[in-house]
Design a protein that fits this description.
Keywords: Aminoacyl-tRNA synthetase, ATP-binding, Cytoplasm, Ligase, Nucleotide-binding, Protein biosynthesis. This is Leucine--tRNA ligase. Its main location: cytoplasm. It is found in: Cytoplasm. It holds the Pfam family tRNA-synt_1_2. By secondary structure, this protein is α+β, with helices and mostly antiparallel strands. It contains 26 helices and 34 strands. The strands form ten sheets. Strands 10, 11, 12, 13, 14, 15 and 18 form a seven-stranded mixed beta sheet that branches. It has a four-stranded parallel beta sheet with strand order 2-1-26-27, with helices on one face. Strands 6-5-9-19 form a four-stranded antiparallel beta sheet. It is globular and about 100 Å long. The structure holds ligand ANZ and zinc ion (ZN). Zinc ion binds near residues 441, 486, 489 and 493.
């Protein structure tokens, strides 16, 4: 029959792909085909696949399948990011072990991925919660520890009261927990960190290589802001009653003579230390009030400024001027040095504060604008230095250089660079993660677990209520596990009970894919260098300052250890849009969720994939309310009939040269345009071109040369080959109907015949004031801009326009340009 039966085809071809395994990568150095390494951000196994997965994996699959079709040696692996809180929360609810829920979901998802028909190498499968994987997390931790890049310190950390665990700064989104949405509070704790700040400069500078369309500009901008490099100076102020001078970081050392007061973060230990006895009561009341605010609230410019005078004075290191020291919440304890010189004339926050507490405002950069004390608006621009002793008369940049010279000469300051980026806090007080491979010994301190004792496995006797969040790790309750002999001296010691942030697991999984079963090292250096870095990385932009930053850091640290040969993990990054419904993100509370399995049951895998890809460019959101999987299914039926009819009417290998010329041209233009559209990652455009070819072939069969014409076969084969990127099942079946054995998906891409790309010209009429004044011969696919340019370049047309004003130009490419003059 010529009717396309999606469900039957899925079963037939899934079994065939499983048996023939057409999508295996070849590791051997002898394979000299061009290599392409395609990675889809791996899935978290929370239930079955959803519409979001369907989108990312459809996109990644087009890119991988394009590689396979072009005869490249493609590595397209699959894995699961399978540690994390949802599994643990499910285990607490169900009185079970997180592994049960995790591995059951993985099997469900794996089955759905197979049905979804993605072209992955199933022999490369990995799960981060396997001891065979997390062993190497521990190994990497110890390598970082050995280089001083993993360390413990006391500090104020972000604490999620709901999940009862600390969070990295990157996991706090607008003051809330990235996972559960609870408002994050600050707690003083001793925790493990990775020293990502050592890499701040390189993380920034190497982004230059990711520009130019390789990575989306939006992600680069977010990472730049997150790392936040500021050039400026440290300036040290003497404070009466204190031995050591107090440094401040400023980006405007040129305004030093305009500093009229000094502010310390209210929650910094320094504020506590500096507070004079008579101000103590007022200060403590204020500090208690500040502790309740989030960073976002504190930095909001809307909120009226608050603060307390600390009863002390600081001394300006160049002018000798004494200025009052205040504590306030708009200065943050963990940025710069947690204290600032306040220059109210030129910094809006300082001005708001000065006006509220009646502190002096002194202009030191004359910008020609009115006095800030009168307008309430600080002047931040360039101008001429005034009231500034040796700086008077200079411009801003010269003044910055001069004052830094003066400060350095006197030893009271120096030019410096400050970053917003903080070290990555990696300890978590939860169970379902990688145990930190350190033993705490009363005599030896922090002792690494020797490599040959890895992995430190999670104890398997904890489950259900044992895992309930307590504020300390559930591992602390596993006393048999915790109590060990010190690997250094043999004395009784205790294991570290925290587990690692699961973003550690995802920071290097793309390296593990190259040799996922290796048990002597995290990865085979030779294979990683052969495949890496990843050519195409596909995933969501919610990872801009999380996973994508951490993976870059890991790659650089591994490079420095001589373990990999490149410093950037992902050459090209594609962020897919979201699948939404009725203009909104799908959610339980809105009741607008769409079930992927249900859509597949209704329309088939091919139609769902095609719908995702045809909806628009891959970066855009897909609103499921605006698309029509039913229309996709109809199109696939039409395509299938063309392939089936051509297959029934002619044999493979038929020489196309004698076929219908018009259809042959359409076919070769399709090859040409689909290729260009795929290269440009405009998959929707590619699909539109295939649709046009199906229409042209249909016409040729019904009212042209008929199904047996060699040009119809040629068209039908190109339809099968190009469709295989988007709708793999129908493509395979069509290919078989066309008389071919073996998969359509590998090595069948064709080159367009240049002789068939030459297009017949069409005639374009150019009117001036509604009269035809010239006729141009143009290409049928000419752009509107180009056509307008050609029309105005015509001397005849120019003659009729004369000196008249052009009121309007109507362009209808390729046939008409109408110029309205008045
Ligand atoms: C004096 C000054 C004068 C400043 C002026 C600005 C303008 P970025 O660019 O973000 O690095 N600052 C320093 N440490 C701070 C902290 N812990 N909390 C809040 N603000 C802090 O900002 C650097 C500027 O932010 C510094 O330069 C300092 O104010 C302030 F006309 O110093 B400036
Ligand atoms: Zn010891």
């Amino acid at each position: 029959s010529d009717v396309y039966d999606a469900r039957a085809l899925q079963e037939k071809w899934q079994a065939r792909w499983e048996k023939d395994a057409p999508f295996l990568a070849d590791d051997s150095p002898a394979d000299d085909r061009p290599r392409r390494y395609v990675v889809d951000m791996f899935a978290y196994p929370s239930g079955d696949l959803h519409m979001g997965h369907a989108e990312v994996y459809a996109i990644g699959d087009v890119i991988a399948r394009y590689g396979f079709q072009r005869g490249e040696n493609v590595l397209h692996p699959i894995g699961w990011d399978s540690f994390g809180l949802p599994a643990e929360n499910a285990a607490i609810r169900n009185d079970s072990h997180p592994a049960a829920w995790t591995y059951a979901n993985i099997e469900t998802q794996a089955e759905s991925f197979r049905r979804y028909g993605i072209s992955v190498d199933w022999t490369r499968r990995l799960h981060t919660s396997d001891p065979e994987y997390y062993r190497w997390n521990q190994w990497m931790f110890l390598r970082l520890f050995g280089r001083g890049l993993a360390y413990r310190k006391d500090g104020l950390v972000n604490w999620c009261p709901q999940d009862q665990t600390v969070l990295a700064n990157e996991q706090v989104v607008q003051g809330r927990c990235e996972r559960c949405g609870a408002e994050v509070v600050r707690r003083g704790l001793n925790q493990w960190y990775f020293r990502i700040t050592d890499y701040a400069d390189r993380l920034l500078d190497d982004m230059d290589r990711l520009e130019g369309g390789n990575w989306p500009d939006e992600i680069l901008t977010m990472q730049r802001n997150w790392i936040g490099r500021s050039h400026g100076a440290d300036v040290r102020f003497e404070i009466d009653g204190r031995e050591e001078a107090v440094p401040v970081f400023t980006t405007r050392p040129d305004t030093l003579y305009g500093a009229t007061f000094f502010v310390v973060a209210a929650d910094a230990p320094l504020a506590d230390e500096l507070c004079a006895p008579e101000q103590r009561a007022e200060f403590e009341a204020y500090r208690a009030q500040v502790a309740k605010l989030s960073d976002i609230e504190r930095q909001s410019t809307e909120r009226p400024k608050t603060g307390v005078f600390l009863g002390r004075y600081a001394v300006n290191p160049v002018s000798g001027e004494r200025m009052p020291v205040w504590a306030a919440d708009y200065v943050l304890a963990d940025y710069g040095h947690g204290a600032i010189m306040a220059v109210p004339a030129h910094d809006q926050r300082d001005l708001d504060f000065a006006l509220k507490f009646e502190l002096p405002v002194r202009v030191v950069v004359d910008t020609g604008e009115p006095h800030p004390a009168e307008t309430g608006i600080a002047t931040a621009g360039d101008g001429t230095l005034v009231n500034s002793g040796p700086l008077d008369g200079l411009g801003k940049d010269e003044a910055v250089q001069r004052i830094i010279g003066i400060l350095e000469e006197r030893g009271t300051g120096e030019g410096t660079v400050n970053f917003r980026l903080r070290d990555w806090l990696i300890s978590r007080q939860r169970f379902w993660g990688t145990p930190i491979p350190i033993v705490h010994c009363p005599d030896c301190g922090e002792v690494p677990v020797p490599d040959d004792q890895l992995p430190v496995r999670l104890p398997d006797d904890l489950k259900g209520a044992d895992l309930a969040p307590k504020g300390v790790s559930p591992l602390a309750a596993a006393t048999d596990w915790v109590n060990v002999d010190c690997p250094g001296c043999g004395a009784p010691a205790k294991r570290d009970t925290d587990t690692m942030d699961t973003f550690v697991d995802s920071s290097w999984y793309f390296l593990r894919y190259c040799s996922p079963n290796l048990d002597t090292a995290p990865f085979d250096r030779e294979l990683v260098d052969r495949w890496g870095p990843v050519d195409n990385y596909i995933g969501g932009k919610e990872h801009a300052t999380l996973h994508l930053l951490y993976a870059r850091f890991f790659t650089k640290a591994l490079y420095d250890m001589g373990l990999v040969g490149f410093t950037e993990p992902f050459k090209r990054l594609l962020n897919q849009g979201q699948v939404i419904n009725q203009g909104k993100a799908m959610s339980k509370s809105l009741g607008n969720g769409v079930d992927l399995g249900q859509e597949i049951d209704n329309y088939g895998v091919d139609a769902v994939r095609l719908t995702m890809l045809f909806a628009g460019p891959p970066e855009d959101d897909v609103d499921w309310a605006d698309v029509s999987p039913g229309a996709s299914l109809k199109f696939l039926n039409r395509a299938f009939r063309v392939m089936a009819q051509a297959g029934a009417a002619s044999e493979p290998g038929t020489e196309p040269a004698t076929g219908d010329l018009a259809l042959r041209k359409a076919t070769h233009q399709t090859i040409d345009k689909v290729t260009a559209a795929i290269e440009a990652q405009r998959f929707n455009v590619a699909i539109a071109r295939v649709m046009e070819l199906v229409t042209a072939a249909r016409k040729a069969i019904d009212s042209g040369p008929g199904a047996a014409d060699p040009a119809v076969r040629e068209a039908a084969e190109v339809i099968a080959v190009t469709l295989s990127l988007f709708a793999p099942y129908v493509a395979e079946e069509g290919w078989e109907r066309l008389g071919h054995s073996g998969t359509v998906a590998v090595g069948n891409w064709r080159a367009a015949d240049p002789a068939l790309l030459v297009q017949d010209a069409v005639t374009c009429v150019v009117q001036v004031a509604s009269k035809v004044r010239d006729k141009l011969q143009v290409a049928p696919d000419i752009s509107e801009e180009e056509l307008e340019r050609l029309a105005f370049a015509s001397e005849k047309v120019q003659g009729f326009i004369g000196g008249k004003e052009i009121r309007k130009v109507v362009v209808r490419a390729p046939k008409l340009v109408n110029i309205v003059v008045g």
